[in-house]
Amino acid sequence: MTRYSGIHGLGIVDTGNATTVARVDGIIIDPVTATVVAIEARAGRSHSAVHWPDIAGFGDAVTVASPGAIRPADGRAAELRGARHDLLRKRVLTDAGDEIGRVVDIDFDPRTGTVTGLVTDNGTVDGARLMGCGSYAVVVRGR
Amino acid sequence: MSDLVRATDLLGRPVVTLGGEDVALVKDIVFASPGGRILGFTLAGRGAFAGPLSQALPWKLVHGAGRDAIMIDDGALPTRDALADRSEVHDGEVLGDVVLTDTGTALGTVTDVIVELGTEPRVVGYEIRTSEALPPAGRVGLIPLPDTMAASGEAVVVPAAITKHMADDLAAFGATVASFRARQGSTR
């Protein structure tokens, strides 16, 4: 299990030439499937993404197999990029309409990309409860 | 334990889709009739300059009504006409009414409506500010709503025995409503 705060700012290393090509600057999550679709990458002023299938591994660095892995977000990652769909720091509402905390961190399975937990200031919520994320709140199933 | 709330507590609550977008605020509650079910909500827009919205929220589209938000599925809301010609709580239909017993004693005035949330939300009682008939006058009491009662827009008439079923707060009121209903059922 990997916690987002543990990879934020880590180097993204191209294993082909062993150089750090960017740094982790964000995480793009599809709330409907509760999976990580991409890691946001920053190199200087340039913002791009590493899509999940292009990630080789998480460790002391995030590794990618080719420099082409760092490219503009496309597909679902492009749709979900940006503040509106960013889970971090957002209030968590249950589908019953009760606020249960604010997202401070995100746990995910580094092998599958499945979001396993939403760490809130009020305890951890099972990632399987994730239903949606919009500009106002992250919505989770059940009480 | 059922979910009892004051109707006025629902006003101003955000209406949020399951996709996490806040689309409106609750402006008013629309009742079927005095003492009736909640038909739905009229809505106001979000933000400092947002006025009333032309859309409304029928209860059947409510996914969940909680302490912090009214949750709805994603999708379009119908226009207000869907809820038209009904009494709104803010029209003074109930709030401010005198609560009169069937023996002619004014118990106080209605200050709020107590709503039981759930899949079939309904009015279960009134919050009243008491008259001298319920000393000390001016305190807040919660009385259960009888199954049948007369309401005119100036007064609501309740059985005199209702004073035995008054609660001081919402926490105690759930049990009060349950025992009052059981009693009403047994006398019929």
From TrEMBL, chain A:
TM annotation in the entry: none
Highest taxon above the source species: Bacteria
Domain PRC-barrel stretches: 84-127
The protein's name in its UniProt record: Sporulation protein YlmC with PRC-barrel domain
UniProtKB/TrEMBL annotation, chain B:
InterPro entries tied to this protein: PRC-brl_dom, PRC_barrel-like_sf
SUPFAM superfamilies for the chain: PRC-barrel domain
A Pfam family annotated for this UniProt entry: PRC
Domain PRC-barrel: 4-75
Highest taxon of source: Bacteria
Protein name: Uncharacterized protein YrrD
Organism: Catenuloplanes niger
